[in-house]
């Protein structure tokens, strides 16, 4: 039989059914996938009501999962998926009598993988795979930005931050044991139960550090002080973003372990618990998004102020703009890795000569008195421009080249 079951939970897409049929469908759509590990449903369904001969059915079928990217979302959008009232996810059963899934699809009802308990268990597996995928992406992010979070944490005097290093070791050990034995035992669970408190405290501390950088920028009025605060933000932001990323990674790992315990101990609560974890995760993302957006807004404001004062501060003003761009680029990259949508155009530092010309032009429209003022301004402005032109042009060129290199590396 060429029936396959498709399930979408907004984060991923699962394809379940006969191994050959599943493979044909994925090939027809050109979708890469991961093993859904359906065998893990056996014990869960054995404890669930209304599922007979679960083991044999599971053994005869294959399950593949993929992150809901633009490509997989496009494939799902072509299918009339319906909402399951129990799980809240979308699903459909497909049949292709000709063996060709690209054409002549038929949608049928019923079947083993339309059972509410099976759909609930599959949704739990999908949630775990989505979080593990996010954890892998954060690992890649930390490697790319070359931030060693443990070193950052050890450098802090706060006891909670020091404890985070140990919490990371404990959770990683639990994940390793889980991979080896296929479950989270009571002994393993007992080792990690207190971890969320330490992770949450560390996340709150990192967010406060980012807020403090933003507030310091807001309090400064002199361009020299703004430049100093902007440079400090540029040097510190990436470290605290790395700490936040590590917190999020460990929170996802703990949620994976937590779902395993629910699978084993209270299977009837699986859907509610999964949805609760999803809501809590979204709340964390929203909190991080608000904090990082505030910092970007302050950096943008600082860049805007700097651009209005480039004439009188030809060195500090471009430095502020450059710092703002680097900070915002780092934040946008971080947000993207966590699935937070956002975009920002880099500010463009105004050339000193452009600012000088603008001031001169304004003076020219002030009437007879303005003629004298313009003459004086022109003499003073271009005398000054002549003395700093070579040095300023060289510095701005260097800054622009450095910014392009940094952007290319990012």
Describe the protein.
The chain has 410 residues and is α+β, with helices and mostly antiparallel strands. The protein has three domains: 3-128, no CATH class; 147-347; 351-410. Helices cover 69% and strands 7% of the residues. The chain has helices at residues 19-29, 41-47, 54-59, 70-77, 116-145, 149-154, 159-181, 186-192, 195-219, 223-265, 270-308, 316-338, 352-364, 367-409, and strands at residues 3-8, 12-17, 34-35, 62-67, 82-83, 90-95, 106-107. Strands 1, 2, 3, 4, 5, 6 and 7 form a seven-stranded antiparallel β-sheet that branches. Helix 5 (116-145) runs antiparallel to helix 10, helix 7 runs antiparallel to helix 8 and helix 9 runs antiparallel to helix 10 (223-265). The longest helix has 43 residues, at 223-265. The chain starts with a strand and ends with a helix. Mean pLDDT is 79; it is low at 101-108 and 366-393.
Summarize the structure.
By secondary structure, the protein is α+β, with helices and mostly antiparallel strands.
The helicity comes to 55-70%
Poorly predicted spans: 101-108, 366-393
Please report the distance between the alpha carbons of the first and last residues: 49 Å
Q: Characterize the biggest β-sheet.
A: 7 strands, antiparallel
Please tell me what the overall shape is: elongated
Radius of gyration: 28 Å
Instruction: Report the mean per-residue pLDDT as an integer.
Output: 79
Tell me the domain tally.
Answer: 3
Number of helices: 14
Structural class: alpha+beta
Q: How many beta-strand segments?
A: 7
Could you tell me the strand content as a percent range?
A: 5-15%
What's the SSE pattern? EEHEHHEHEEEHHHHHHHHHH
